[in-house]
Amino acid sequence: MLKIPPHQVAGHKAGNGKLGPLVDESGRFYKPLQGDERGSNELKFYTSFSSDTRIPEHISKFFPTFYGTQLIEASDGSGLKPHLVLQDLSIGRVNPSIVDIKMGSRTWAPEASEEYIQKCLKKDRETSSLPLGFRLSGIQIYGNKESGYWKPERTSMQNLSAEKLKTILKKFVSSNTSPDMNLQPDCAFAATVYGGSTGILSQLLELKAWFEDQTMYHFYSCSILMSFEKELALEGKNPGGQIKLIDFAHVIEGKGVIDHNFLGGLCSLIKFISEILTAPNEHITEVVPSVNGVN
Ligand SMILES: Nc1ncnc2c1ncn2[C@@H]1O[C@H](COP(=O)(O)OP(=O)(O)OP(=O)(O)O)[C@@H](O)[C@H]1O
Ligand SMILES: O=P(O)(O)O[C@@H]1[C@H](O)[C@H](O)[C@@H](OP(=O)(O)O)[C@H](OP(=O)(O)O)[C@H]1O
């Protein structure tokens, strides 16, 4: 039985007669192939990447497993349509907190049409992409049984200042997840989700090391999907913080040049997460007034 993904945070969504991804119960995510070059480009990427022997295993694990394509009944009722069959990254999660982070200050590839470049340029300028090197494309944060999910309207998350963005990334790993932006998040789960030898920061650093060297692909408009199981965090267990790269409709060949656009965004994201880990409570740090100029 195919159904609408229960934890999708961004992108084109199924439902109300619209075309969007579906999932089954065995852990597969079916993404409809967009009819234009975006669909063929994403299929080309998955086909090439999944058989590319130059990609080490410690890097391929950051990408959803690709199971080919399949004709299935499209969610918009238009009949059989080809879908990419991917690993469902949310399978097994009960109450996941998830954020889709669109990477790069520039979301368009150089060979895109002038019209498409103008559309993206406008959005990159109007969001945090240009100043911060990434934008939050969509987010859901699970609070607890009483409060359920906080899933803010997507556009309200896209043009945040550095300070507000840091507050959201803190809220993501906090036990107090009220939508009130003035409430200081407690970062109760920062150490277990972001920190540690297998935590999100360590995964981001592993990915960065590869991006500092790889010149095969340029990942325009690609997202890092960051997630963890809040239910486990609340029980004091390892919440399984993970990062995965998704959305490859605008990936192009790197032609021997590093992907400085993605890499720049990644460095920026790493800086935010590192600062949260080193100073989770910086907002309440009191500045002790100096006496005669000596602290
Ligand atoms: N393999 C996956 N497993 C589980 N969820 C996924 C997977 N791939 C994508 N998603 C969910 O679907 C959302 C949209 O994915 P994606 O960016 O690939 O779609 P899109 O329609 O191409 O997006 P856009 O409109 O931004 O180009 C993600 O934010 C995530 O919540
Ligand atoms: O250019 P494409 O390939 O058609 O796809 C768009 C692109 O991924 C944008 O970055 C995205 O904005 P977000 O940053 O909001 O994800 C937009 O979503 P939208 O249609 O909701 O604006 C998509 O339609």
TrEMBL record:
It comes from the Eukaryota. It catalyses: 1D-myo-inositol 1,3,4,6-tetrakisphosphate + ATP = 1D-myo-inositol 1,3,4,5,6-pentakisphosphate + ADP + H(+); 1D-myo-inositol 1,4,5-trisphosphate + 2 ATP = 1D-myo-inositol 1,3,4,5,6-pentakisphosphate + 2 ADP + 2 H(+). GO terms for biological process: inositol phosphate biosynthetic process. GO terms for cellular component: cytoplasm; nucleus. GO terms for molecular function: ATP binding; inositol-1,3,4,6-tetrakisphosphate 5-kinase activity; inositol-1,4,5-trisphosphate 3-kinase activity. InterPro entries: IPK (IPR005522), IPK_sf (IPR038286). Keywords: ATP-binding, Kinase, Nucleotide-binding, Transferase. Residues 1-20 are annotated as: Disordered. Inositol phosphate kinase with a broad substrate specificity. Belongs to the inositol phosphokinase (IPK) family. This is Inositol polyphosphate multikinase. It comes from Capsicum baccatum.
